[in-house]
Structures are given as structure tokens and as C-alpha cells.
User: What shape does this take?
Amino acid sequence: MTAGHEQAGAKPRQRRRRWRVAAAATRVFLSPSPVGHWDGAEGQDRFRSAYRTAFRDLPKPAASLDVRTDYGLVRVYRFAGKTDTTVPLVLLPGRASASPVWADNLPSLLAIGDVYTVDLLGEPGMSIQDRPITGDDDQAAWLHQVLEALPEESFHLVGLSIGGWTAANLALRKAARIETLTLIDPVYVFGDMPLRTIVRSLPASVAWLPKSWRDSFNSYTAGGAPVEGLPVAHMIEAGMKHYSLKLPQPERISEDRLATLGMPVLAIIAGRSVMHDAQTAAEAAERALPVGTVRTYEDASHAISGEHPERIAKDIAAFIAPFANG
Assistant: This one.
């Protein structure tokens, strides 16, 4: 694990959005490469420029870390919290969104304690995949290795969208370092993805189609909110256009599997999500989680993290309070 990378500048943040872009949950690529990769130097440069611009909306990180795993190099940022805690939060973003997606959430989450953000391996971001990820065990293995490399003994793991599935998948396979689990409108966890969403995502995954098609899908997932001109939306669109994912399709987690989770779980469901039926998902969470707290935000879209950052932080703070210091 190495530190000392150039840090993207952080300027005083003004709330410029009350929503969060959620990128396509299904991607189709024909590249023969066995690992995720850019379509060329120009596309990678365009994404990195957009990433740096969007990163300026985050508080300045205390450290930038590259963690070596068996599957590649994983970029992790540490943000110093406003209160002392021995059990920090670890945030996993949605598809194609990387650490800058948490810009609206970090100020209120840092009131709880230290926070790590992770750029998911095999996704557009600053992590670099160099070995194929062939199944759910591999997805758990690289993330477990990241947590093992961090100095703390345990973590409050928080996942958004596909990051929620990634967090739950780890908790089912390698739970030793997970104190609590928070799943924010996770996909493939409490319900199946509707066919209409899968169909709408397909054109957004075709790189040569116009930018407007990707913006249209991202707006669809965000409840129809406009996405043009926003730094994080520009970053997501650049990743969708220029990066080829080579990740296995996540397996839907059954209720029987969820029932084996031993740690406390907070499930936050978006009432207007297009990634599953909200009522069905909430009922599944209520039935399946042995130690579960379920919250449905009735007016939220799948862009819930940007629409309700303070409410999410308040719910997480109350949920982890009994375990905040280990």
C-alpha cells in the first residue's frame, strides 16, 4: 500500500445538485481483453480530466492510497473525520461513478468519523485491473485484501447500487472485518432488475452512440433529473464511453443467503428506484435480514445518495452508534 499521490484540489463546496447520477447496471462490450481497459490514451485522458474536475467537489483527502491486490491496484482515499473513531466508514460507489460520486455525502458522513472511499476494481476510476475477475469469489477476494491492508481492525461498510451488491457479496464470504453493513438502494440484493431498465441500459453501453443516449439513461435512473453540465455526470459519461468492463454479471443474492448475514444491516431503499420494485425489495429485506433495519425513502430515485445526503448520514449515524468505537 503506497501513499503520496498528487491530490486533486478541493475548493469550498456549494451544493449544486440534490441528486446523484447512477450509471448503467448492465454493460455489453465485444473487446477480447480479459480485464477492464480504456479504448485508448485519448479516452483515458478525457476521463481522468473529468475525474479531477469532479474530485474538486470533495473535501481534501488526508491520504491517497494504492493497495496492491491479487487482481490489480485499488485506489483508496482516506478522509479525516471530525470525531474520533476506531471503526471508520468504507464507501463503495455505484457502477462507473468512482469516489467523486460521494461529494454531497462526505461532509455529513465526516461528522460521524473517518471515511475511506474506494474506486471499484474493474470499473472506470483510478483503480487498475490486471487479472481477470471471473466470479463472485474473486469480487470478494480483492475487496477483502483492500480492507486487510488498511490499519484499522474493522469497518462500517457502505455500498451504493452495485457497490451495495459488492459489499453484501463480501459480507457473505469474508465478513471478519465488517462491523456493520449499509446497503443504499443496492442492485441484485433485494430484488431483480426490471426488464425495462435492462433494455434502456443497453444503448447507453455502446460507445459509438451519441453522448445524449448515455445522458438519457443516467437521467432515467435519477428520476428524470437533467444531468448535462454537471462534473460528476461528465465523469460518468466519459467512463461509460471509453472504458470496457470485463466483469461477470452479478448473481442475485437469495433471501436464504441474506439470512446468513451475522452483522447488523441497514437497508435504505429508494421508493422511486428503477433498479428494482421498491416495495418488493423492502419486504424482502424485512423478511431475510436477521439483524436488519429497513428504511424506505418514498420520494427518492436511484440517485438517492445525492438527493438525501443528510438524511442518509443521520440514519447511518443512528444505526452504527452502538458500534461506533468498536
The CA atoms of residues 1 and 149 lie 7 Å apart. The chain has one domain: 40-308.
